[in-house]
Amino acid sequence: MKILYFAWVRERIGREAEEVEAPDEVRTVAELAAFLAARGEGYAEAFKEPKVVRAAIDRRHARPDAAIAGAREIAFFPPMTGG
User: Fold this and answer.
1) Where is the signal peptide (predicted)?
2) Structural domain harbouring 32
3) In sequence order, what DSSP letters do the residues of 10-75 get, joined into one string?
4) Domain assignment of residue 57, yes or no
5) Which of 6, 47, 55, 60 could bridge across to 77 with cysteines, CB 3.0–4.6 Å?
6) pLDDT confidence tier of residue 80, bands split at 50, 70 and 90
């Protein structure tokens, strides 16, 4: 699946997108974030406070417990504020 990173999540990881093949036991957004956090220092820094990072599955906001099966694209980004 394609993983997209935005704002400070992207800055900490050092890339805006990548293709990832998650193991079968990774079934939710939260599990995917934990899997990614274990990939290295930048990832660990980006996901060190998982409750702060938001996600979208195929361009629709998703909760941490949302299933990722069949997702084509998952995006991670910081909370957004309005103005």
Assistant:
1) none
2) 11-64+79-83
3) HHHHT-SEEE----TT--BHHHHHHHHHTT-HHHHHHTSSTTT-EEEETTEEE-TT-B-TT-SEEE
4) yes
5) 6
6) confident
| CB-based contact 3:62 (threshold 8 Å) | no
Task: Count structural domains, the chain.
Answer: 1
Structure tokens at 45: 């820094």
Q: Which two tokens stand for residue 49?
A: 């406070």
25 located within any domain: yes
How confident is the model over 18-49, as pLDDT tens digits?
Answer: 999 999 999 999 999 999 999 999 999 999 99
Q: Is the pTM of this model over 0.85?
A: yes
Task: Taking residues 66-71, report their average pLDDT.
Answer: 97
For residue 1, being part of any structural domain is answered with no
